[in-house]
Known about the structure:
Layout: H1 15-31, E1 41-48, H2 58-65, E2 69-76, H3 79-92, E3 99-103, H4 107-111, H5 134-139, E4 150-162, H6 163-168, H7 175-181, H8 186-199, E5 206-208, H9 211-219, H10 239-253, H11 265-270, E6 276-282, H12 285-293, E7 301-305, E8 311-318, H13 326-336, H14 339-348, E9 354-355, H15 358-362, H16 364-367, H17 379-388, H18 399-416, H19 420-435
Amino acid sequence: MTPRASGRARRVTPTAAAAALVLALAATGCGGSSGSASGKVTIRISTFSNMGFNKSGLFEEYEKLHPNITIKEDNAADETTYWQALQPKLSSGEGLGDIVSIEVGRIRTIAGKKAAMFTDLAHAPGVQPGSFYPWKWAQAKTDDGKVLGLGTDIGPMAVCYRKDLFQQAGLPTDRTAVGALWAGDWAKYVDVGERFQKQTKDKGLRFMDTGNGLYNAMIFGQVTSYYDASGKLVHDSNPGVRRAYDLAARANTSGMTAKLQQFQANWRKSFSAAKFATVVCPSWMLGQISQNSGPSGEGKWDIAKAPVPSNWGGSFLTVPKNSKVKDEAEKLAAWLTAPAQQAKVFASATAGNFPSSRTAAADPAVAGTRNPYFTNAPVGQIFGDAAKNMPTLNIGPDQGIITNAISTGLTRVEQQGMDPDKSWRQAMSEIKSAIGKD
């Protein structure tokens, strides 16, 4: 998965875990990577969550193809802790390792303020620029045309739903018919939620887990959200941002949400109780649902097309300029993100690591994939069709900070009953305090 607010899920973890990771990465930095007189080379790669490289056997395969290479992976369980641990290294430029994974919500920091620290990978050996979705390739590009990150995965959007709960509400259960209920507008999705609640009011069911996922789906489906094409902050004046907030707040105040915080313990446990019917569902969410619902949920979940194309999540591989094995690291990053390897990660993982390579997505091994857990849904086709029609979102360096602040505002509305307008104003104030406004 590349949970993933933006991509891989950003889960809150204990302070002790964060401290432990900082120490672990610090130790990695001190050790560094190296070649040797014998020609042996060690490449250290920093990853987070389930990026699928090791599980799919790619590291082992690469080492067999290149007997002089040893790959050492330093993996963090969640992206938030990982990013926090990177901060002192990004400040000093030391200890970053040889390949550094960066989540999409952070990539503009790398391609902006920290661009001088990273290698241009546009022409690295083995890189196939035309194989990537153009919008993905553009996300890691600097103003002067360098490409500092190679895309690993993306998070094209769908809606996952419980067929049994839809049936109880008198709604269709066929995935095509379900998708038609809300085709063209996320507001129709909320309309269906209100219909669902009216028809299940005596059953204690809820239509969705939380409105915050809906907000992410809407905000990541726009060309302009927090930044315009020139890089100027427009989060507080863009009507598209406020519309996404207002629709999510409508869901959060209507009684159709289970009032859960995604990726927290109570959210994970709630799946087995089957008390909500839908989850806004980027491809990597499939792993979360199947893992948390367990065997009893198999065949009860299905996947319908999202109202409009949207992408929530995805990551990149970057190579610091001061890596002692920079040339070999570039080759490995290019190989791991090549179409054949992206297809293998998708095929081997249950986490839904959908390729950022359009060549890989068109491969029958990907395009023809079905997921037995989700009623044999044609996931390769559903997510592939969404990825083809994705707008190129203007991303800025503080994308994650802004999303987190607005999401926290929506949580106040949902769980504390705060007035949506008041919570919006508080979120705008918090953002200004954190990042200012150009």
